[in-house]
Design brief:
Elements (H helix, E strand, L loop, with lengths): L17 H12 L19 E10 L5 E12 L5 E8 L4 H17 L6 E7 L7 H14 L9 E5 L5 H15 L20 H20 L7 E5 L3 H12 L3 E7 L2 E4 L6 H11 L9 E3 L1 H5 L3 E6 L16 E5 L8 H9 L3 E3 L1 H4 L2 H15 L5 H26 L3 H20 L4
Parallel strand pairs: 3-4, 3-5, 6-7, 6-10, 10-11, 11-12
Antiparallel strand pairs: 1-2, 2-4, 7-8, 8-9
The structure holds nicotinamide-adenine-dinucleotide.
The site of nicotinamide-adenine-dinucleotide has 23 residues, from helix 6 and strand 7.
């Protein structure tokens, strides 16, 4: 029997937003924490500070338009804030708060010396030209500049942001400071103080934790069937690494739809096709299936690597995967978690599975401070070690205390955060 405590009724509403999902997860784990930490649990239920900013830009046609931007510091007990910046038309403060909360837990799970933060702009970046995107990024950076800094809060890429966006953020912040401050963001181009291995780091971490889970469960990666939702930074790199290890990536879904090939898709060819055509549909050697059919495909590994709440009470019953490895943040709702646990499907949770990105971001930040850069082999070896150690600590706790991996990860992460909070004490 899994030890999953009941939720208080005020958190059991349907169709709740990401922040409430995060709160439900904290609520579930609170009774499992050491009693000495309980007076501090409220810290996790409240972001430390949240900023909403207006981001006006001049479009290429001369018109001025406004977007809403956010930056949230969820917790900084263990170090400066750290977390990505998302550009998406559905970004809300609730979502950014949840993503910041998960960053707090994640950074503690892999024991990097950061608190949790996140940012975003409610914008569909596909509607903007490159020049407009640069204007948007620079104005947003300027508006949140009081919150960020290399020893305060260090942004990084998330959905629809990349190394170029980080370069603009670094440049804008540096202009304000009157000097070049490379350590203010991570995920930068390598030519500007970025780290080798950062681009693939999240996908590599997903693959490493999947491989560790497979070992424990006696599942062979060679020949395993893998389905991946999201074919961006995280999804594409994970798919590529599974394929390189001999797995068959049989289906990939992105915002354009779902493609399938039972013998295994050619991941590199699919990546090239997407770059040229801006859609997966019509790629050679695969057929299109419906987005709904994707979820019930029989497979050994399912990697959600797109948005929150994709695995929910509507599809959890039909999922035919052995192991789910959460590349995305918050892809599984608490209701779906309960269904999956009941059905014996193992979930490697986001706060562990996708922590490879922030781990190499930590390496990048350290390298920027010391102006001494490591080789890609060094980066990948250190990343693999940290991910495998975090996985094994969580697996061991889950076995000993008979709890799901998510609960074990939250117990480890929350305990580290709350121990720091309690030791620092209350100011004033
Ligand atoms: P990305 O922008 O590079 O890619 C996002 C992918 O999701 C794209 O393939 C897009 O088509 C797809 N997508 C968007 N909406 C979709 C929908 N409705 N249905 C199906 N697919 C959809 O983003 P990313 O950086 O790969 O981030 C993906 C997830 O991984 C997010 O949850 C993010 O928070 C998380 N994450 C990213 C990093 C990182 O280093 N980039 C680190 C940790 C976690």
């Amino acid at each position: 029997m899994l030890n999953t405590p009941q939720l208080p009724s005020y958190l059991s509403k349907e169709n709740i937003g990401p922040w409430h999902i995060y709160l439900q997860q904290v609520e579930q784990v609170a009774p499992l924490l050491d009693k000495s930490l309980l007076p501090w649990v409220d810290t996790l239920r409240r972001p430390k500070r949240s900023l909403i900013v207006d981001v006006p830009i001049r479009l290429d046609n001369g018109q001025i338009t406004h977007f809403e931007g956010y930056r949230v510091h969820h917790n900084t007990s263990r170090g400066p804030g750290k977390g990505g910046v998302r550009y998406h038309q559905d970004v809300t403060l609730s979502e950014v708060m949840a993503l910041a909360g998960w960053m707090t837990i994640k950074n503690a799970v892999v024991n990097v010396p950061f608190g949790g933060a996140k940012g975003g702009i409610r914008v569909d970046p596909r509607q903007l030209s490159l020049a407009e995107l640069e204007g948007l990024t620079r104005r947003y950076t300027s508006e949140i500049s009081s919150m960020i800094g290399p020893d305060k809060d260090i942004p990084a890429p998330d959905m629809n942001t990349n190394a170029q966006v980080m370069a603009w953020m670094m440049d804008t912040y540096s202009m304000g400071e009157g000097r070049t401050v490379t350590g203010v963001v991570t995920g930068k181009p390598v030519s500007l103080g970025g780290s080798l291995g950062r681009q693939d780091a999240t996908g590599r971490g997903v693959f490493v934790t999947a491989r560790e889970a497979a070992r424990k469960l006696g599942v062979s990666i060679d020949g395993a069937r893998v389905i991946v939702q999201g074919f961006g930074n995280v999804g594409e790199a994970s798919a590529r690494m599974f394929a390189q290890a001999g797995a068959r990536v049989v289906a990939v879904q992105d915002v354009s739809g779902t493609v399938y090939n039972g013998a295994g898709l050619d991941v590199l060819a699919l990546k090239r096709y997407l770059a040229d055509n801006k859609t997966l549909l019509g790629a050679p050697d695969c057929e299109t299936i419906t987005n709904d059919d994707f979820w019930s495909l029989p497979c050994e590994f399912l990697v959600p690597a797109a948005l929150e709440s994709q695995i929910n009470r509507f599809n959890a019953e039909h999922i035919a995967a052995r192991i789910i490895v959460e590349g995305a943040n918050g892809p599984t709702t608490p209701e779906a978690d309960a269904i999956l646990a009941e059905r014996g499907i193992v979930v490697v949770p986001d706060v562990l599975a996708n922590a490879g990105g922030v781990t190499v971001s930590y390496f990048e930040w350290v390298q920027d401070f010391s102006s001494f850069f490591w080789t890609e082999d060094e980066i990948n070896a250190r990343l693999e070690r940290i991910m495998a150690e975090a996985f094994n600590a969580i697996w061991q706790m889950a076995e000993e205390r008979k709890m799901p991996l998510r609960s074990a990860a939250f117990v480890i992460g929350c305990s580290r955060v709350l121990e720091a909070r309690a030791t620092r004490g209350l100011y004033p």
